[in-house]
Amino acid sequence: MPDNAVEMRELVKRFGDFTAVDHVSMQVRRGEIFGFLGPNGAGKSTTIRMLCGLLIPTSGSATVGGLDVGTQSEAIKQRIGYMSQKFSLYDDLTVEENIDFFSGIYGVPRDQRAARKDYVLKMAGIEERRTSLTRLLSGGWKQRLALGCAILHEPPILFLDEPTSGVDPIARRTFWDLIYQLSRSGHTIFVSTHYMDEAEYCHRLALMYRGKVTALGTPAELKQSLGSHHLLLLEVSDLVSSMRLLTNVPGVSDVAVFGGGLHVTVENDQSAIPKIRQVLEDAGIQVPILEPIEPSLEDVFVAMIEREDRKAA
Length: 313
Description:
By secondary structure, the protein is α/β, with parallel strands linked by helices. It has 2 domains: 4-223, P-loop containing nucleotide triphosphate hydrolases (Rossmann fold), CATH 3.40.50; 227-294, 2-Layer Sandwich (Alpha-Beta Plaits), CATH 3.30.70. Helix content is 36%, strand content 28%. It has 11 helices and 14 strands. Strands 6-7-8-3-9-10 form a 6-stranded mixed beta sheet, sandwiched between helices. Strands 2-1-4-5 form a 4-stranded antiparallel beta sheet, with helices on one face. Helix 5 runs parallel beside helix 6 (169-184). The protein is elongated and about 75 Å long.
């Protein structure tokens, strides 16, 4: 088996005049939790559907588990697990009946189905709900069941397309515990998300925007990619006026609302801090907090989008 579970080379997908995926090239290593991060409409789902053999690429090439997505899509479907943001469960079946149904769909040998069912129920923590109707489950429980159904046939590679969309933060954390379990047992996991906190859990990330991969690396490497710029946390008595005033301060390259305060990107924090404080206090704005901080992935993401928008303009 190749070292890379997934490889893409200049992968393109067009729908008429619209380019959804624009010359994407990257690799996902075996056993990796690889995060695909980007806003809605960035091209993440289209890329995943090509890799799963559900869409034919317009040009370029890709392999999944050493199989070509253009010519071996049916073989790929037998080697992967796929879970979309819209759970493909049957609401009028019980938990157990859904597992039985997908065991048949995925071709699990009959003599292994009972053992696989027990494994999935235990792994997902849904043993006590085996006789519950699926439609009565919460979003978090449905999510666990859908993941369990996706791994019934023991696929080495899992594609999870925004699997935690619409579920509460506690259910999302529990779901990621399951992803780590699967990773430790040798699965390669390719997961797309637009939640920044989830991106921190991945071994490596690709940031996608307008069909292109604009950054690639570990979470730490992406944070360092802001380069020579420094980040300040600013809490003030007047957010709107502060943003307007800071756009004219020399050395300030970006100002963004973050929670109840502002994140200010500057070229040099030591020289910028006294200038910023002076400008705001001269305008009668109170500045209780103004201090350097480490950038988050959200800061990287915002900076990346703004950089790409400036290029496009």
